[in-house]
Structures
1.
Amino acid sequence: MGCFPCYGDSSMKEKDKKRINNRVRNDNQNNLGNTKNQTNNNRHVHTRDDLAQNSKEQKVSPLRDVKDEEAKDASQRRDVKDEDAKDASQSASSSDASPAENISGDGQPGTSFKARTFTYDELVEATGRFKEEDFLGEGGFGRVYKGFLKDTGEVVAIKQLDRNGCQGIREFVVEVLTLSMADHPNLVKLIGYCAEGDQRLLVYEYMPLGSLEDHLHDPRNNIKRLDWSTRMKIAAGAAQGLEYLHDKMKPPVIYRDLKCSNILLAEEYNPKLSDFGLAKVGPSGDKTHVSTRVMGTYGYCAPEYAMTGQLTFKSDIYSFGVVLLELITGRRAIDMTKSAAEQNLVAWAKPLFKDRKKFREMADPALQGRYPTRGLYQSLAIAAMCLQEQPNLRPLIADVVTALNYLASQKFNASSPSSQRAKQEQVTEASDE
Ligand SMILES: Nc1ncnc2c1ncn2[C@@H]1O[C@H](COP(=O)(O)OP(=O)(O)OP(=O)(O)O)[C@@H](O)[C@H]1O
Ligand SMILES: [Mg+2]
């Protein structure tokens, strides 16, 4: 994944470069200098102080030293643009606010803050001293390990903040508060966190099937390729997770980091969205957007957001369109191993969307023709709508959920006569060309 660099140090270690490459931080922010902070008029909104009060009930508060740490963190990121620091310091009084400042799951502070606190020693024990065999992977925040909580018997995934990484304390707080107050089967559950000294760790429910990225783009030999029905089930579940953020949370939340590696898979391929460190409270009142620095992952960012920093719910819809297209085509959002015309998935797909005869060419060859023709067309139509240049032409997430639930409910038997016929049609079309 490309990343708009958050660090410009050319002497950066290879490891750091890899990590940063995973994360976009768009430094092309000429427009952001003009953006004004807006006042949040939403009555459901809770201030940072409300939350601090609330979180005092916890043994360790992720917020306790965050104001200081945020400033320290911002100043430590030498190459981060001034906008970043401004953004962090201004956000408490602005509608460019992360859920950390003012979100509530049900509008009642204190009732839904469920995350448990851990000491660092407890997590050292849970991971067997962060042993390599239990290393699950590494992203912009830091390394992730599988762990076991003796007292509850739970298997967990523990993410340890890398202080030199490109995400920091701010993302940690946003993650803890957003997930603590969210409760939906398609959002990964945060079991707890550790904020001891300068250690910051997040403890999640363990997702045994890993990420959608692993299955779609990095299938190990022993992993079965995802069939059509499973892909539609994953798309519908991920859309439901997004619908919860957009339409059910108070105030609503823009996710900002929807991508295949952030869709984790539970038993039976039930998808759950993860990584809420970039989430933002949506615009309130008659505001149409939130002005913020551009963050997200290259290939998934809506064009208008990347250009202007104006974030809307429709930015998430665009990212969802990219994920859906990846599910249908089996191609990566950005693939530098392909020829120039095929490196950017959306740019490759746009001309094909206009020609029905090309739709079959877009299906993942790994499906070997085992998909319903109508389902393929319909899912491509949904992806095309989500990827409209004009944000207001993109559908609302509730409509995407309705459409994908319908597609996921269509039972498709890969060996049924209709699918054999579709395969046959495909062979005939190919030989006609
Ligand atoms: N709850 C979990 N259960 C099982 N595996 C997990 C869990 N959370 C993360 N992982 C795995 O850990 C790895 C790193 O995840 P992480 O979210 O840190 O990075 P990423 O999603 O690849 O990048 P980014 O930092 O941009 O989100 C991924 O391979 C993911 O599959
Ligand atoms: Mg992730």
Note: Residues 256 and 278 are 6 Å apart (CA to CA).
2.
Amino acid sequence: MEYSKHGSIEKKLEKLYKQERKKLRPADGEVKEVKKPQGLPEDTMRKYFSQLVLALEYCHNELGIIHRDIKPDNLLIDENDNVKLADFGVSQLLPQDGNDKVKSNAGSAYFYSPEACIGTMYKGRLNDIWACGITLFYMATGNYAFQSSEHSKLYRLI
Ligand SMILES: Nc1ncnc2c1ncn2[C@@H]1O[C@H](COP(=O)(O)OP(=O)(O)O)[C@@H](O)[C@H]1O
Ligand SMILES: [Mg+2]
């Protein structure tokens, strides 16, 4: 894969956040207000999300691959401001019969679906789609939809 000089969506959000904070920190160092992380502009978000959905649909239906680690850090922005789905490190090839049931969890826990948290067999494609929803929430707010540093609490929230 070629180099994506704008990095990932997560990096883009971090940059926006830093710019916002700088604006709130005048030269004399006085901090006027502590602001929460902000999301991306709505039209940017709409574009990135539809490109993510198209890329994932292609993986699922044309290539027979479940990604298993959909998150902003794995969505790269190329020089034309288009999304590239990256990091197939934990992805899986579907068997011929299309059965996408998986048991073991992969990727970041913030993006696990409820059925993945329960620990039973779950459908890999649906799990990827759930992770797209958490990614959209992150793009909109700069936060995870469910947040806790404790795994057991995070699973309960999800
Ligand atoms: N082709 C690329 N162009 C630009 N940055 C990249 C590229 N591939 C990876 N990166 C950067 O490196 C990070 C880690 O790469 P990734 O493939 O997600 O590996 P892993 O998460 O398994 O360490 C990405 O989040 C991204 O910031
Ligand atoms: Mg990665």
Note: The mean pLDDT is 90.
3.
Amino acid sequence: MRIAVVGGGPAGLYLSILMKRADPAHEITVHERNAPGATFGWGVVFSEETLGALRDADLESHTQITDAFAAWNAIEIRHGGHVVRSRGHAFSAISRKLLLEILQRRALALGVELRFEDEVGDDLPDAHLVVGADGVNSIVRARHADAFGPSVKPFPSRFVWFGTDLVFDAFTFVFRETEHGFFQVHAYPFDADTSTFIVECNEATWQRAELDKRSEEETIAFCEDLFAEELGGHRLLSNRSIWLSFLDVRNRSWHHENVVLMGDAAHTAHFTIGSGTKLALEDAIGLANAFVRHPGDVRAALVEYETERQPVVERFQQAATDSAGYFENVSRYGGFHPLQFGFNLLTRSGRITYTNLALRDPHFIRQLDAWFTGDAGALIAPPPMFAPLELAGLTLPNRVVQAPVGEAAEPDGRPGEGDAARLREAAGSGAGLVLTGLVAASPEGRTTPRCPAIHDEAQQRVWAEIVRAVHEAGARIVLQLGHAGRRASTRPREQGADLPLRQGGWPLLAASPLPYTDRSPVPKAMGAADMKRVREAFAAAAGRAADAGFDGLELDLAHGHLLAGFLSPLTNRREDEYGGTLENRLRYPLAVLDAVRERWPADRLLAVRLSATDWARRGSGPEEAVEVARALAGRGAGLIDVVAGQTVAESRAEYRRGFLTALGDRIRSEAGVPTLVGGHLTTADEINTAVGAGRADLCVLETQAIAPRTGVRW
Ligand SMILES: Cc1cc2nc3c(=O)[nH]c(=O)nc-3n(C[C@H](O)[C@H](O)[C@H](O)COP(=O)(O)OP(=O)(O)OC[C@H]3O[C@@H](n4cnc5c(N)ncnc54)[C@H](O)[C@@H]3O)c2cc1C
């Protein structure tokens, strides 16, 4: 087979080696626009698992690469005058230049033709297989853009990739707070004399520091000055080192006819997880193996390569995006204790969790546990999940919340035996806090005829019994008080979501007369009298919840229900003082909160459930949610229960595991209010990680998702 490889970076060179090894009869030409020794960047990092794959694919180059490695096992985090070190992380790094030299030598030895200073233009070489391994600005990708469907977007941060003659002994992160904002360094050794030294900041900081106006020399001088303490007289070395924005590259498809993309041409993963070269090399392994399985069948091999590699790469891209987001917003965590700051950094992309770190570095986790429970000297302390929490007058024994779902109320709105049983079971689970489902503040506020309510004496009495039972089981209980608004009067959930009642429906109320689905009735836009009546109903219900003995009250401003309907521009089209600006849209929900607060004891927790994003075009997003959370906290909300979506029926949900943690993290750190998050958290590890890293204060553990599968009872 005649193979033309465009690009002599790690991807193209390694593929040519593996293809030649697999079949020496292949005629392989690598077209590289640069001269042999000319490349960008300094050292690149590898993890242990990559190395295993390289050894199996080509022992010869693996041996040469690993012989040249600088290896270490510590990560050091310097911030605010503190230094935190974590050990047990196996890293290796190599100079990019040396890596390319090794791969070039190996390719030549196997008989690959390397054509340097040979820039491929719009006319791609003629071959049985054309490989686009030409990096982030790939010409091959551009040539067949219609077929590949690329998306190329800059991350909103800037970086400059230096070397330095200071040899670090750990992967070192340095954070420096300046008048312009946070700058951070990612530094690690890659040979006996040199380290990589990448300086990064977010776009706003970069603009404020006017770094766009500085030349290469001035940039070096700026960075040397900023990190003079760490550099200790050592120099920063430039290799065409200028400020860049990292490009996020994705492609709908990686192949078209006999043309295939690999490495950065196909996908990038933000450099803060140091995986681009690894992914490029693994692409080469995947592609070469596909040809071993389908010799001479280009189409079958390319389909297999893409099917196998795309999901793997997407997982890395998600981790890389989370990691990049962490560094963009790291100033949020500037006030954290050094240990928590470090733990937050180490767990930023989800690839290291509490449990992983406990294995890698038990000492670090012991210190974190001790600090978290408030006894820095303790040798043995419970993990963050089991640390008690004091919250607005409520003392919780641990950070786990059970929020059982289901509605089983009597026709008159009294909670049914099914509701009571679920809450009692949740209370006996060991969770510190139990949260009810939506409890209606008025008859027309019920979601379905099975939705429990708390607007009369009889309902209050049953709730009081449930509260007693929960307390006897050792847990605390919070009532979620709401009004379903335009999502009211529907059939029970098990018959389908948001299906209007066939019979016995009741009139709906909402901020604006917009039905929830095509089949939903049109709600009445609330007038002044409706607003007064509903506000008073909420206040009266809050008084009843207090009398029933609830430990906390959670006001529902979520999921497209009545009060949430005022918040979102998608569902609030009012032209009076309750619509338009965010300040106006907040007016009615805040008025209800005020009314509730007057009837709710000052020494008990008042929480709010808030949709942090509408997940819909032109809807509210996390930025607005932070503003809302701030306003709510300013009016007495001591906890935000963060949820997402369902504002409009057509919202585009992103229900990946732990999907609420990042949203909650943002609200917690930017609005400065404690948060409760769920989002399919099913393990202690996820809760220990989120709580220990300061991303949440309380977490809903989804035990229902686990129990039926294990089937174990004792
Ligand atoms: C700051 C920074 C730090 C990084 N750190 C790490 C790290 O620690 N670990 C890690 O694994 N990865 C790291 N990466 C990512 C890594 O550099 C890339 O993912 C990797 O180089 C991708 O390899 P590639 O072969 O696909 O592309 P490249 O390495 O970009 O190679 C593409 C080649 O194609 C050539 N070319 C381009 N166009 C043409 C043309 N028209 N004709 C001929 N030749 C052409 C180029 O000259 C180049 O040699 C980092 C990246 C950055 C920006």
Note: The radius of gyration is 29 Å.
4.
Amino acid sequence: MNIIEWEPALSIGVDVVDEQHKGLVDMINAAYTLASEESNPMQVNRLLAQMGRYAVLHFSTEEQLMKQAGYAGMEEHKAIHAKFTKQVSDFACDGSQDRPLAVFVFLSTWLKEHIMGMDREYAVEVREMLESKS
Ligand SMILES: [Fe+2]
């Protein structure tokens, strides 16, 4: 069972980013499943590896768009992205039993605070930049 489905209310209005954010929703559901069932550390590590790959691709997409738009808050935003990446590697070194739940809470909080917060701020300027090009 999925705990969350992607919905238009989660859109930041930049198609390429929305598509990638759907991948984050999938990972929230995967973390939820691992937290609610008996999971082994290998499954959790697999999800963390996926989160790491996601971070590389997704953050570079966002940061490129911010750069193209000349977004003034880019450095601050990049620093928050770096914290996500650091947290993922910290989880990978953590052997505690409640890791799946911690990953689930971490990703859910990221959706609520980062995607629904900071990402919306840069999206305004990125949309303007993309519209001016089309
Ligand atoms: Fe972001």
Note: Residues 99-133 form the longest helix (35 residues).
